[in-house]
Write a sequence for this structure.
């Protein structure tokens, strides 16, 4: 699923860049060009914010999975230690 999201983001970036180039070449004045640049920058910042949310979600999932794995490994280790303690005593 992450591969599809990454592909979609790359395609979206290419489309944005193409639209920006087209609008910029069609600008007839400095204010038109500035407006196009501001619109493009706003869209890019929005995309970067969305990317950041995805990265943070991925990191959180990674950390939760690692914590769950260490807990399950730790609980099986404590059972083994308890068995060894009982055998020795």
């Amino acid at each position: 699923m992450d591969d599809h999201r990454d592909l979609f983001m790359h395609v979206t970036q290419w489309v944005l860049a193409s639209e920006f180039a087209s609008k910029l070449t069609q600008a007839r004045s400095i204010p038109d060009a500035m407006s196009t640049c501001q619109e493009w920058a706003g869209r890019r910042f929005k995309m970067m914010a969305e990317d950041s949310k995805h990265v943070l979600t991925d990191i959180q999932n990674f950390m939760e999975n690692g914590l769950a794995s260490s807990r399950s490994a730790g609980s099986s280790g404590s059972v083994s230690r308890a068995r060894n303690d009982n055998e020795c005593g």
The chain has two helices and no strands.
